[in-house]
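cron nightly-structures :: item 1 of 1
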Amino acid sequence: MVMILIILGIVTGLAYLSQRHSMRTGKKSWDIYLILLFIFLVLFAGLRTSYNDTGNYITGFVNSENIWDFLSDSENLDLLNNPLFYGFQALIRTFTDNYTVFFIICAIIVNYLFLDFIKKHTEIENFAFSIFIYVCLGTLMLSIAAQKQILTMSVLTLAISQLFDKHYVKFYIIVFIAGLIHTYGWLFLFLSLLDTKPWSIQTFVLLIATVLLMLTFQNSITSMLEMADQVGKNIPAEEIFDDNQMNILRVAVYSVVPLATLIFRGRINHNIDRENSIFIQMSIVTFMFMLLGTMNGANMFGRAGNYFEIGLICSLPWTVRQLFNRQSVTMVFLVAMLCFSGFYMYDNNGFNYGYNHKSLTQFIGEIVYDQ
């Protein structure tokens, strides 16, 4: 428990110092504190030796073929089998058998894209709180658990930026590329349909569709699995019908922004800009997936919802500032930090027993020895 609190403190503290620097200069550029935060996150993820699916990724990398053998087998290029991830893995494996090199390269990509996106697309005074939420929701821990998913999520931040600028062709191209890393990335293809103010007609259509799926869960999901099988994407039924329901506490956490923006829709939509509209719509999509997870397949629906949770991360501090005056907003942030910290500790209760890492000195020694 102490270790996860130290991680939260270091990450939030460096983000706050970066925020203060930006407030002094009026610029959202990279500063020394953001660079230190980036280095910390890269080492945290890159030097790991165990946590969640890390063992499977280590085995997959060590047993990976080189890039030339990978490209020579047409089965490896099947668009539905994550060819870009495995091709990237094969490319790194061509030059080294040290899995830590692979993890560090992935961590550099992931953390640069996430930090740069959050820095650019949150108000200057909201950056530290958004990074705090980034840790507490579990996005940071996902970066050391699910390599394919987190790489895809980070690449999708580039797609969101294009959507903000109404560069729809670039948006779809990046989403297509992200889906080659992990197929779930293609869920973003319908995000452009939600390019409206929160709780518009499109949002309510999404809500109705979610409720109908929940009411007809067994038959509807079975039909979807059959359709996926017909196009060549085999999803084992046991991944969904595994009698694993989403924790209600997690659902409640993800409901904060959707419910607040629904209840106070008039006030929120009166002052909202296009970026925060899309962010809030994304938080609603995440919430819908969490609701589906209460029926069954919590792991699968939870992972699907994770792809959109950057919207909650960026929109929550903005929403709080819209709903509370200057005198009370600080108290609300403090209460929110206490609540999210409690969820973070609950959600990562077994972290100390699952996470292990090598030292930077040990890694450098391995590189020197290999030379």
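cron nightly-structures :: done
The first strand starts at residue 48 and ends at 50.
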